[in-house]
Amino acid sequence: MAGGSETSEAVQVLRRVFGYDAFRGSQQEVIEHVIGGGDAVVLMPTGGGKSLCYQIPSLVRPGVGIVISPLIALMQDQVDALRALGVRAGFLNSTQDVEERRLVEAEFLAGELDLLYLAPERLRVEQTLSLLDRGKISLFAIDEAHCVAQWGHDFRPDYLALSMLHERWPEVPRIALTATATGATHTEITSRLSMGGARHFVASFDRPNIQYRIAPKNEPKRQLLELLRTEHAGDAGIVYCLSRASVEKTAQFLVENGIAAVPYHAGLDSRMRAAHQSRFLREDGLVVVATIAFGMGIDKPDVRFVAHLDLPKSVEGYYQETGRAGRDGQASTAWLAYGLQDVVQQRKMIDGSEGDDAHRRRLSAHLDAMLALCETVQCRRVRLLAYFGQESAACGNCDTCLTPPQTWDGTVPAQKLLSTIVRLKRERGQKFGAGQIIDILLGRKTAKVVQFDHDALSVFGIGADLRDVEWRGVVRQLLAQGLLAVEGDYGTLVLTGTSGEVLRGDREVPMRREPEKAARAAKAKSS
Ligand code: ADP
Ligand code: ZN
């Protein structure tokens, strides 16, 4: 960094107002660029320090910095934190009554604010726009900018209106920020916000202190307890579950086993939620079991682990949630357990989701990418960063690097399984899920097998050389490789356009060996 920048106004504000010695990463470059009146698109991982990138220019440039954020629940806290530093900040959102709003508007018009946080839907109200017209604006900051991307995992229609900012106030610089953007999302942000002339600042998305691990799910709560006892005794952490019911059950299970844990989900009343959140921030070593709603914008530096007991819906979501671990840079764990049931359940949710086909295709693509990450035999970090368009070398700090998975040639089992599906369709026009198909392969005469005469099929019992869990692994990996698909309410397994290559013997199917199976094999050898 140039010697002269030492005394720049930005550096002075950093020290005087925020009490920090130096900028991190590309913060200073971004800040100087925006102070100079330029537009900026900033991609920086969680904890990278995005807030200062718009807060400092707002303090240095004349006028009020307008921050657009969808995180309404956090605005009060953000504003309180800034006020504690002596920054004149306020917010406008739907949680306020008329009186509170009027007060903030008066402060804005009187030039008594440095920063004004706005929920995006406020900009649909003409009153807000004319308010902004009457004050002096120093910049627009568009936080969580990926929300403007329809291709992204968290699209919000209100964000589409933000292209209007530039049309209405062309001279005001804009800075769009996000911690999660694939190449496609980045491109979409740029075009939807008409930021073609902006400078782009793309930080590395790598979080080297986070150890990524993905395990097959058998007894998730037990597996979690084992992880906490052996590696994270007394540590603060977040456990994510998909449903409120499993949040409750898991929290209770942990408490029964002597671990300080509290539930957090939208079904709890808001006072209890707030109480649990503030305990998490203040206390050492509390575990919060939550649905994904928990953790956005929460700045707790010493979260030592993030555990997922259910499969996240997208790689972006997974990256964002795991990113809440280890903001202090210390070693942390991101642990995920997933099983075939997760895939079936999510497919079902996608099939039943509202919205058009394009929307469903998008959700499917997100799920497929997540599955591919789970079943990869490559370094998890390499895959994760590649998803965000960044190249890297094997990290040495993920499960596949630390205990390289053995692979095996799964071509024959894949052929057996796919041809079973072919037969079922041909003979009955009926569709069946993984359970039935595995029963047939294993030669089990269950009531349902007998009912449909499946014990008379030529494939009945041809898969007895593998166990149930191994067949489930085969199904998951075929799904992850796009050689099989799930559809409908009952998790019906169907062939894909590429299944034929395997059936014809034109394609080999390498598979990741189940760690449990590998362990069993090793044990058998040693005894
Ligand atoms: P993000 O929004 O990118 O997730 P934040 O802006 O919340 O990150 O910053 C994460 C944490 O790092 C905050 O506690 C913030 O105060 C701190 N921080 C940001 N920039 C600096 C800096 N230059 N020096 C020290 N701490 C910083
Ligand atoms: Zn690795």
Automatic annotation (TrEMBL):
Tell me the enzyme class: isomerase
Q: What is its EC number?
A: 5.6.2.4
Where is the region Disordered?
A: 510-527
**UniProt-listed GO biological process terms:** DNA recombination; DNA repair; DNA replication; SOS response
Question: Which keywords fit this entry according to its UniProt record?
Answer: ATP-binding, DNA damage, DNA recombination, DNA repair, DNA-binding, Helicase, Hydrolase, Isomerase, Metal-binding, Nucleotide-binding, Zinc
List residues of the Helicase ATP-binding domain.
31-199
Q: Which domain of life is it from?
A: Bacteria
Tell me which residues make up the Helicase C-terminal domain.
Answer: 220-371
Regions of compositional bias (Basic and acidic residues) in chain numbering: 510-519
> Catalysed reaction per UniProt?
Couples ATP hydrolysis with the unwinding of duplex DNA by translocating in the 3'-5' direction
Quick one: a GO cellular component term?
Answer: cytoplasm
- Biased segments, Basic residues type: 520-527
Q: In its keyword annotation, does this UniProt entry include DNA-binding?
A: yes
GO molecular function terms attached to this record: 3'-5' DNA helicase activity; ATP binding; DNA binding; four-way junction helicase activity; hydrolase activity; metal ion binding
* Cofactor(s) for this UniProt protein: Zn(2+); Mg(2+)
The UniProt similarity line reads: Belongs to the helicase family. RecQ subfamily.
User: What is the protein's given name?
Assistant: DNA helicase RecQ
Q: Which organism is it from?
A: Streptomyces benahoarensis
Q: Mind giving the lineage of the organism this protein is from?
A: Bacteria, Bacillati, Actinomycetota, Actinomycetes, Kitasatosporales
Q: Which residues of the full protein are shown?
A: 1 to 527 of 673
